[in-house]
Amino acid sequence: LVIDGASQADFIGSDANPVGPEIVIDGRLALGGSGFYFLTCRSIVVQDLVVTNFAENLDFTGSDFITVAGCYLGTDALGQSAGETSGLGVYAGNCRNVLIGADTKSRANLISGNDVRGVLLDSCSIARIENNRIGVDRTGQKALHNNFESILVQSGSDSILISGNQIAGEK
C-alpha cells in the first residue's frame, strides 16, 4: 500500500507549496481518532503528506514493513506552526521493520507541534528513526516542541536505531 502525496504536484502541473507537501489531511472536524489507521497491514509507505489535528496522525498497529518519509506530522502546511489539536505524530505498536525518516535528510519527516509525543514505539522490533526534524520548525531554526517526549520507545521493543535526527526537547 503506497499513499504518495508527491503525485499532487504532477497532477496540477506546478508546486503549490514549495516549502512542504502539497496535500493536507486535517482532522479538526474528525472528532478524535486517527488520520490514518493501519491495523495488521503489510508493506505500507506513507510519503509527502501533511497530516495534522488528529489524536494520532499516523497509527500503525500490528503492521510490518512500514516507511514514513517526507511528511509533516502535527504542523501546518508550511511547517512553521503547530496544528490546533494534534495528539501524537506517529504511533507504532507491535510492529516490525519500521522506518520513520530516510537514509538522507532530503526525505526527512517534520514531526513537531504535537500535543502529546512526536513518535511512540510500543513493542516494536527492528525500527529506525533517522534523519528527521522533531520538535523544530521546517527550517530547524525555531523550536516547535511536542508537549511530552519527542521519541518514546516503550518496553518490549528491540533492535531500535535512532540516528541523524535534529531533536528539540519537549515543553
Topology:
Elements: E1 2-4, H1 7-12, E2 23-26, E3 34-39, E4 42-47, E5 49-52, E6 56-61, E7 64-69, E8 72-73, E9 88-93, E10 96-101, E11 110-111, E12 117-122, E13 125-130, E14 133-134, E15 151-153, E16 158-163, E17 166-167
Parallel strand pairs: 1-4, 2-5, 3-6, 4-7, 5-8, 6-9, 7-10, 8-11, 9-12, 10-13, 11-14, 12-15, 13-16, 14-17
Describe this structure in words.
With 171 residues, this protein is mainly β. It is 4% helix and 44% strand. The chain has one helix and 17 strands. It has a six-stranded parallel beta sheet with strand order 1-4-7-10-13-16, with no helix packed on it. It has a six-stranded parallel beta sheet with strand order 2-5-8-11-14-17, with no helix packed on it. Strands 3-6-9-12-15 form a five-stranded parallel beta sheet, with no helix packed on it.
Helix fraction by DSSP (H/I, runs of at least 4) = under 10%
Topology as a string of helices (H) and strands (E): EHEEEEEEEEEEEEEEEE
Average the pLDDT over all residues and give the rounded result. 91
List segments where confidence is low: pLDDT < 50 over at least 5 consecutive residues: none
What's the Cα radius of gyration?
Answer: 14 Å
| Overall geometric form | globular
The count of DSSP E runs of length 2 or more, i.e. the number of strands, is 17
> What is the beta-strand fraction?
35-45%
The largest sheet is: 6 strands, parallel
Oligomeric state: single chain
Intertermini distance: 35 Å
- Structural class estimated from helices and strands: mainly beta
